[in-house]
Amino acid sequence: MTTSIRFSHTLVHCRDKKTSAAFLTDVLGLDEPKPFGPFLVVGLDHDASLDFIEAGGMEFETQHYAFLVDDASFDAILERVTRRGLDYWADPFRRVPGEVNHHDGGRGFYFLDPDGHLLEAHTRPYGSGGGTWRSSSARPTSASDNWR
Ligand SMILES: [Fe+2]
């Protein structure tokens, strides 16, 4: 049986959708966000999108959003993050600052968006390099560690 299921979209809660969507498009080098109803839609490849919506003063959990990018895009994203003076880390627990990881033989790093969502840019799909996880620091070591 053949199926065709592609990821379509998810919502990204934020305080200010213009600020947050512009941050993402600027740092990743994407097209301008497009309004759609209450959302600001940031389009990705394969017609997927992140749809920013303001939480309207309600509390919201920070989430993790990861972007699989080619090597040239990775260099450009890291350069933009650095130029903005943003902190970045090799691991999701933010223990290894200013470094990239080499999971699966590629490169990856983590940084925060204006609301504290944990963003990740990486160049190889998880597990594509035989599942090598090359940073011992990128493991939870306490109950306070989480993957966001
Ligand atoms: Fe991730």
Q: Strand order within the widest sheet?
A: 1-4-3-2
User: What is the helix content?
Assistant: 10-25%
Structural class: alpha/beta
Shape from CA axes? Answer: globular
Say how many strands there are.
Answer: 7
User: Overall mean pLDDT score?
Assistant: 92
Quickly count the domains: 2
CATH topology annotation of the largest domain: 2,3-Dihydroxybiphenyl 1,2-Dioxygenase, domain 1
Task: Enumerate the distinct ligands.
Answer: fe (ii) ion
Radius of gyration: 16 Å
| Continuous helix count | 2
Main sheet overview: 4 strands, mixed
Strand % is: 15-25%
Kindly, what is the distance between the CA atoms of the first and last residues, rounded to a whole number of angstroms? Answer: 36 Å
Q: Supply the CATH class of the largest domain.
A: Alpha Beta
Could you name the key traits of this structure?
single chain, 148 residues, alpha/beta, Signal recognition particle alu RNA binding heterodimer, srp9/1, 2 domains, 4-stranded mixed sheet, 3-stranded mixed sheet, globular, binds fe (ii) ion
